[in-house]
Amino acid sequence: MVLLASALCAQKAKPTRITLKDGAATIEGRLRGRQQTDYEAQALPSTTLTLQLVAAPAKTVALKLYAPEAAEMPLRVAGSNRWTAELPRSGDYGISVLRLSPALPDGTVIDAEVVALD
Prior knowledge:
Helices cover 0% and strands 63% of the residues. It is mainly beta and 118 residues long. The protein has a single domain (15-117), classed as Sandwich (Jelly Rolls), CATH 2.60.120.380.
């Protein structure tokens, strides 16, 4: 994603690589302001990816999943704060953690933890 303002441009940061060890990885992070954090995980074809998100304060962030060609993929609810997706081919899949609550005061820090399982 590229944002152009006048003659200046800023690029989106490179996603943080997630390495699944024994089929799982836990990522912890913080969001400030309107920030979003992006991750990337390599998957084999016919893999079911399960994502679990815990955030404090609750219901302040969301997850999005992107296919290797950058198209957003649907996530199916698999329980409380848990979603799954069938990954049809091998490649690097993107996972974005986005802030949902613009009503929070400026400077509010959101702690988020994402667990990825295949």
